[in-house]
Amino acid sequence: MVQVTEADTVLNCAELSTREVNAALAELPDGTHARITEPWGRHNLAVGLSNSCTIEIAGNAGYFIGGLGAGPAITVHGFVGWSVGENLMSGSITVHGNASECAGASAHGGRLVIHGDASARAGISLKGGTVLVGGDVGHMSGFMAQAGVLLVGGDAGDALGDSLYETVIYVAGRIASLGADARIEELTADDVLTVKRLVDKAGFDHIDPENVKRVASAKQLYNFDALKDQKY
Amino acid sequence: MCGIVGLHLKNPALHGQLGSLLAPMLDCMTSRGPDSAGLALYHDEGARTVMDVYKDVGLPKEICARYDIASRTGFQGIGHTRMATESAVTTEHSHPFTPTEQLALVHNGSFSNHATIRRRLVREGHVFDTDNDSEVAARYIADQMTKGADLDDAMRMVLKEFDGFFTLLVTTSSQFAVLRDSFACKPAVVAETADYVAFGSEYHALASLPGLAEATVFEPSPEVVYTWSR
């Protein structure tokens, strides 16, 4: 559902190229609000912005939405394609729909909230960002994630957290299988507090912070062991 | 990178618009494949189903204009825009590959063991038109079906036999089928309404379709064969 709010600037994708939309967004003064209309799966909307504005995308959007962002708060009223919030630095992206593959890939900071499901490889190579998915995530989510948090409100697909580094993954539903070197650890009081805080920020009301699984690295693959089996 | 589109029209009222609906979808995938493009379109002639194939080198929009795709009618069609990664850019190397009169295949991805499977098929008497990896998958599926497999089974055998990554869209005179590799390496979006099943490598390829806003839109899961029949 598209919530119509008062916007300082309305940018219609049917009339503007992606470059024109992004150039107009980059010029917005801090504190202003823009709405992007008729996106119809357009890629690369609202990428590379460093101003502190709020941006609404009124419909389904394509790849790399909000990528490289360092400031804006972006809300998508629809679903998004691959790599939403890729390399996000700060600010937030909220998707009121599903996300395709690689949601939040390599995000260094900021917060990506997906109210629907995320497809394969959600939070791949996460580097400090926060990825909060209300629904399910697909296979190989959290692959090689180095820092930050991935919260899954639904179920996780196969090979969750394969080759994890320091990212912690919380899963409220079932886990199809864990990836290499990922393990389920005991939930601490600190974890419960962290999940409470994340759930509040995301606005999820279906996750019990005391009933999530904590997935973290077993650190058996953490460093390359040159002496292992004396083969090298 | 390549682009795939497809339309399986459930509502006969849309059959007159097959080409005019499919051509803008193909044009939209130009960024994924500007080298060459092709389509396979199916229509009925009395009790017979006819598959027409158009493929050529150049921009999808120019190819659609050259062969007047927008005026074509029928009940289903698939299209491909090619960015060649492993064999020459010629009309013969472009998709769809049509090993039989009724079977067409378009592929986004690349196979790594196609030479091995090609050698086996050649030993069994199959003749290839090109050294393209996707042609091997097309002839493999046709071979499986000749030996008695239905389209679902033949596509499942691709999962067992082929290494590599792929999103495949395969059509016969009565079916429209989608399959993605185990890792879902290549994108795929399906939109279904009461009137049609539409396939696109990217959602915006579907944006020009009537009633898309009300369609059920989903990404096909890896390793699952999705089939629609007339």
TrEMBL record, chain A:
Molecular function GO labels: oxidoreductase activity
SUPFAM superfamilies: Alpha subunit of glutamate synthase, C-terminal domain
Protein name: N-methylglutamate synthase subunit B
Automatic annotation (TrEMBL), chain B:
GO MF entries: transferase activity
InterPro entries reported in the protein's UniProt record: GATase_2_dom, Ntn_hydrolases_N
PROSITE patterns listed in its UniProt record: GATASE_TYPE_2
Any matching Pfam family: GATase_6
Glutamine amidotransferase type-2 domain ranges (all copies): 2-229
Transmembrane segment boundaries: none
Coiled-coil regions listed: none
Keywords: Glutamine amidotransferase, Transferase
Keyword field contains Mitochondrion: no
UniProt-recorded name of the protein: Glutamine amidotransferase-like protein
